[in-house]
Amino acid sequence: MAERKPLISGNWKMHHTHLEAIAMVQKLSYLLTDADYHVTDVSVHPAFTALRSIQTILDADRIPIALGAQNCYWEPRGAYTGEISPLMLAKLAVSFVIVGHSERRQIFGETDEWVNRKAKAVLANGMTPIVCCGETLEERQAGLTSSLCLGQIGGSLAGLTAEQVAGIVIAYEPIWAIGTGVVATPEDAQAVIGAIRIEVGNLFGADAAAAVRIQYGGSVKPGNIAVLMSQPDIDGALVGGASLDAEEFSRIVRYRAG
Ligand code: PGA
After folding, report:
1. Does 101 qualify as catalytic in the annotation?
2. CA 62/CA 178 separation, integer angstroms
3. Spans of the chain below 70 pLDDT
4. Which of 85, 109, 230, 252 has the highest CB neighbour number within 10 Å of its CB?
């Protein structure tokens, strides 16, 4: 079985103007080396307004950080005021698009059906979706974590082929851990992520389950990343707050260094 290369992604959310984003990527490129990129894939997900600036820098300086977006609509064009299409992102050399982040689901009412349409549109435009799932504290306390996450994954990936699923990224992000400083224990994160991998196997076959990369997200910091990454099914991290600082994020990318 091929090794799954870790993917560490910085989700900048609604932070960093394009000027701040430029400074951030320049610092990051100074801190990370080819040795880091060799063993770990890295993506940054700026706001839409900074994508073009960051694309230009990554391209001009040949920095092997993948460009990511935080969301998109599913239509290629049309009368959808305020939306951004996957085609527009693909033209900016975006590689990864986060779909179904819990903030999109909770604040903007996105459903599994929407997330599914977005994931398909991202794939159709040659990019990779990072499909998010995760439970609230109440759902966890009610013992619903696994059934809820597996339901979100089943709904969000419906109709994808096994080959497509093998190439996507899933992010398990317990909502109670996002931005709270309360990280899931490595064992809890592994339990849910292991269950997600089994479900991918049930739905799409063993090859897809063995290949799909599954990230953990929720209060990932330089101090807790290594132990999370030591779990067998955790293939990377989706990092919010700690990705806003280049030094902190570079330490997360270099989690092997301790
Ligand atoms: P956090 O956010 O690292 O600030 O908890 C993670 C996320 O929402 O992707």
Report:
1. yes
2. 32
3. 1-2
4. 252
